[in-house]
Write a structure and sequence with these properties.
46% helix, 2 domains, alpha/beta, Spore Coat Polysaccharide Biosynthesis Protein SpsA, Chain A, single chain, eight-stranded mixed sheet
């Protein structure tokens, strides 16, 4: 398929043996013209040598190769650096432990060509080993102006499935400086500026590994990530609360969803008093949201379990 240049942007950090999977899936894309942009995020290992040795395969596949190393700064800073160095009219994002099906970019670009009002496209995905169980549910693949439904969870757009036009990215800017939830924050800001286009085919494979940021430090790490999400949400409200498509009520629901997880994390750690305090704070900030009301019985059960030296287990 001939069309505008697409830049596939892959940040990588100390995973030289996994790069074959992600980079190879880019080279197998049926779409051209295509640029492969790889950011070595200060790995300090053999990653540069692996990337340099990959160059002949990239050339043979008819793909432009743009790779470089930078000081370690996390995936958000790496993606920002990649977009600054990329030449494409569209950006597509992939992590170094995931892969795309060959027709991914061709399918998305063809649909975006017939829906020019959409500056962002996203697809369904599968987890490795569960290819017969695509996510999210079809009902969560809504398109159009999706700020409200992203906040409420009725629309779910995975970062590794996105294709974003350079024009929209210029208006929105890059990722915020954070190691968690920076992708969700970016999607919310994108959704204020452009319509989204949902592609129902599962075209990305998520291959979660133990070193994933989302799994760092277990439940204690979850608590830190919860606090980071709330901080970033506060910053989003402060910066974009006056936008005509910004919905305070939708953001209250999103805040309640974050608090819901935070309270559960505290319960599973056996910190019932802290969980109850966080729940009350959530009620103050979010109002009487149904999912917060449902936590009341869970808190009561956690308190009783604590009397017997037990804690509720994470499902």
């Amino acid at each position: 398929m001939s069309g505008p240049l697409v830049s596939a942007i892959i940040p990588t950090y100390r995973r030289p043996r996994l790069l074959e999977r992600s980079l190879g899936s880019v080279l197998r894309q049926t779409y051209r013209p295509l640029e492969l942009v790889v950011i070595d995020d200060g790995s300090g290992d053999e990653t540069p040598e692996v990337l340099a040795s990959f160059a002949p395969r990239v050339k043979e596949a008819g793909v432009e190769f743009n790779w470089f190393s930078k000081e370690n700064g996390g995936p958000a800073a790496a993606r920002n650096a990649g977009m600054e160095r990329a030449n494409g009219e569209f950006f597509a994002f992939l992590d170094d432990d995931d892969r795309w099906y060959p027709q991914k970019l061709e399918t998305q670009l063809a649909m975006m060509r017939t829906h020019p009002q959409a500056g962002v496209s996203f697809t369904r995905y599968v987890h490795e080993g569960k290819e017969d169980q695509p996510k999210p549910k079809p009902g969560q693949m809504r398109d159009g102006w999706v700020f409200d439904t992203l906040c409420g969870g009725q629309t779910r757009a995975h970062m590794q499935t996105l294709v974003v036009s350079r024009d929209v990215q210029r208006r929105v800017g890059g990722f915020v400086d954070a190691r968690n939830w920076e992708d969700s924050d970016w999607q919310l800001r994108l959704s204020l500026e452009t319509e989204f286009l949902a592609v129902l085919e599962p075209l990305t494979v998520i291959c979660t590994v133990e070193s994933s940021i989302s799994r760092e430090a277990g439940l204690e790490g979850d608590l830190q990530r919860d606090r980071e999400k709330l901080r970033l949400l506060d910053e989003l409200v402060a910066e974009h609360g006056g936008h005509p498509r910004f919905s305070p009520e939708a953001v209250k629901l999103l805040r309640a969803r974050i608090y819901d997880e935070h309270v559960k994390h505290l319960i599973w750690l056996g910190r019932v008093d802290q969980a109850r305090e966080a729940w009350r704070q959530a009620l103050d900030e979010c109002g009487e949201q149904p999912l917060l009301a449902q936590l009341k019985s869970k808190l009561a059960r956690a308190r009783v379990a604590g009397w017997f030296g037990r804690r509720l287990k994470k499902p």
